Amino acid sequence: MSRCYSQLTLADRRRLHHLVERKVPVNEVARLLGRHRSTIYREIRRNTFRDHELPEYSGYFSTVADDIAKERRRRLRKLRRHPHLRRMVIERLKAYWSPEQIAGRLLADSVSLVRICAETIYRFIYGKEDYGLGLYRYLPEARRKRRPRGSRKPRNSVFPASHRISQRPDFIDDRTQFGHWEGDLLIFERDFGHANLTSLVERKSRYTVMIKNQSRHSRPIMDKIIETFSPLPGFARQSFTFDRGTEFAGFRALEDGIGARSWFCDPSAPWQKGAVENANKRIRRFMPGDTDLAEVPQSALVQLAHHLNDLPRKCLGYKTPTEVFVAHLQEGG
Description:
Blueprint: H1 10-21, H2 26-33, H3 37-47, H4 62-75, H5 78-81, H6 83-94, H7 99-109, H8 118-126, H9 170-173, E1 180-187, E2 196-202, E3 208-213, H10 218-229, E4 239-242, H11 252-258, E5 261-264, H12 274-286, H13 298-309, H14 321-331
Parallel strand pairs: 1-4, 4-5
Antiparallel strand pairs: 1-2, 2-3
Helix pairs in contact: 1-4, 2-3, 3-4, 7-8, 10-11
């Protein structure tokens, strides 16, 4: 029997129902289910269905027992039983406090005798009864639906060690070779839809390319990059350096489509692709986060990229990215 208690599940209750029907002794039921006998006694006593008008229909039924247990837990929720605590939580959520900050501060200040944890607040926000309050809008990521706990998977298998930036050749890092790019995704306000922008910068010439996307799905983004870069000669599109965003998980398509190798920054290290980060700041001057990208055609993005590429840059000896890029194309690298 496990020392760590967990609530009975519907599957447990189905097994219990069959054992109760067979009139198996409680001690044996507890052994078969891997539970303490007190847990089984309590489960049968509290969650047995009783029909006082038709007693013959009374009994322990798995789905009914599961519904009774869920309803009891709903009634006993702390933020339902303590209106004052509920008001404090709502006020602080609307002040853009995170559930962890709220729970921690309530405990630190001893404001309430009732202790709650961040998980209690998340369940309150996303529960059926209180979802209509729209409190999810005040969370850091404002998700309409809650991501299941533990669902975020490590990305090491998606971005293998052989593609880490630490494995990238030195001639890419010191910009001595032409044809190596950095890429990033620019996101705009969610209210305007899912449209986003891929920004790409050639490391040596600082030449900028901007591509509009309709979603953040990786394969369409990669297909757009392949379509845009296919006309260039191979020496002008040798590699791309990205961050570890899931939008770049389909990077192998670049190698298959245009023969370009992909490299990935370390986690939380955007400075490792500083050229495109610098370009993003320049782009944001003309396209801030509240831009409705759905209303901006690709031709306008091309025009903006031409403008940025025609500005002289100190790091290029006051030549323009266009001049340096075209010179390398004419020289063959």
